[in-house]
Amino acid sequence: MLAAHALAEERRVVKRLRNAGATNPHTATPLPDLGRIQTKRLRHLIHRDIVHKIEPDRYYLDESAWEDHLSRVRRIGLAMAFVVLVIMVLVLAASRH
C-alpha cells in the first residue's frame, strides 16, 4: 500500500514537470510548493537519474528513464503478486490435509 502511495506521489511530480515542458536541461523548471512526501519522492527520482537537477533548483524529467522505472515497478508488482498467489495456494493445500 505504501509503495502505491509513493508511486502516486512520483507521478504527481512527473506530471508537474511534463506540464511545464521540463524534459531537457534547457526547459528545466523550479518545483515550488512540493509537499513533504513529494519532496522525498523527488529526491528518490533524482537519485535514480529519472529527474535531473540544474542549479539553482530547477529540474527536468528524463522520459526514457521514467518509462524504464515504471516497467521495473510493474515487474516487481507482478512478481510480488505471483509470490502471494503461490503462498495462498500452498496454505490452502496444507489446510486440506
Judged by helices, strands and strand pairing, the structural class is: mainly alpha
Mean of pLDDT: 93
Percent of residues in helices: 55-70%
Largest sheet: 2 strands, antiparallel
Q: What radius of gyration results from the CA coordinates?
A: 18 Å
In percent terms, what proportion of residues is strand?
Answer: 5-15%
By DSSP (H or I, 4+ residues per run), the number of helices equals 3
Report, as a whole number of angstroms, the end-to-end distance.
Answer: 33 Å
Overall geometry: elongated
Count of folded domains? 1
User: How many strands appear in the DSSP assignment?
Assistant: 2
- The string of secondary-structure elements, in order, is HHEEH
Please mark out the parts with pLDDT under 50 across 5 or more consecutive residues, or reply none.
Answer: none
For the largest beta sheet, what order do the strands appear in spatially? Answer: 1-2
Care to describe what's here?
The protein is mainly alpha-helical and 97 residues long. The chain has one domain (2-95). It has helices at residues 2-19, 36-47, 63-95, and strands at 51-54, 58-61. Strand 1 and strand 2 (58-61) form a beta hairpin. The longest helix has 33 residues, at 63-95. The two termini are 33 Å apart. 16% of the residues are buried.
Structure keywords:
single chain, 97 residues, mainly alpha
Question: Nutshell version of this structure?
Answer:
The protein has 97 residues and is mostly helical.
Question: What does the secondary structure layout of this molecule look like, with pairings?
Answer:
Blueprint: H1 2-19, H2 36-47, E1 51-54, E2 58-61, H3 63-95
Antiparallel strand pairs: 1-2
Helix pairs in contact: 1-2
